[in-house]
């Protein structure tokens, strides 16, 4: 009877431990995006995304060079990530563009988030104005968010002057979510 109780307790303990572990398949941290880490070598992408399809830049491959850009697709065809490789002697991932809304930062920000969500979770270091968008750079983070100028009031859409956080509507949607590793 005592051995049975111990066995049952061990089984329940194992189940409890597994249920408490966080699924990191679509988690964005400062050093990782899902199974990808900032130290992942370009040559290891097929192994890192073994359940998915990794496609290299075909033009580079045709020219006999190593691809500088890779796209990761789920087996069903959904585009997950676009990866840019650095030019170091041992190429690693330099930039990750998130394409799937299931990916979220540790603070819960993803492609379905708004500017208000970003402001509530991150301190903003800088806002960069480009011709068609604004790029939001949070303090102390490798993440950056792009919002299309179409989300802004009309008087700011065609301006190249600096845009302040107070000028961005709370409901402005994220167009691009990216992680930059140097």
TrEMBL record:
<dbReference type="InterPro" id="IPR038714">
    <property type="entry name" value="YfeY-like_sf"/>
</dbReference>
<protein>
    <submittedName>
        <fullName>Uncharacterized protein</fullName>
    </submittedName>
</protein>
């Amino acid at each position: 009877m005592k051995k049975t109780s111990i066995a049952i307790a061990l089984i329940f303990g194992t189940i409890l431990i597994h249920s408490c572990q966080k699924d990191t398949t679509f988690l964005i941290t400062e050093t990782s995006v899902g199974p990808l880490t900032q130290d992942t070598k370009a040559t290891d992408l097929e192994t890192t995304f073994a359940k998915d399809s990794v496609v290299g830049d075909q033009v580079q491959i045709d020219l006999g060079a190593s691809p500088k850009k890779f796209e990761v697709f789920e087996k069903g065809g959904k585009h997950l990530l676009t990866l840019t490789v650095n030019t170091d002697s041992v190429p690693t991932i330099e930039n990750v563009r998130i394409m799937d809304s299931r990916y979220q930062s540790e603070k819960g920000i993803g492609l379905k988030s708004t500017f208000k969500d970003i402001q509530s979770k991150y301190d903003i270091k800088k806002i960069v104005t480009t011709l068609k968008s604004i790029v939001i750079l949070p303090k102390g983070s490798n993440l950056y968010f792009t919002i299309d100028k179409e989300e802004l009031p009309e008087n700011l859409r065609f301006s190249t002057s600096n845009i302040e956080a107070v000028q961005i509507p709370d409901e402005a949607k994220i167009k691009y979510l990216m992680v930059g590793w140097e």
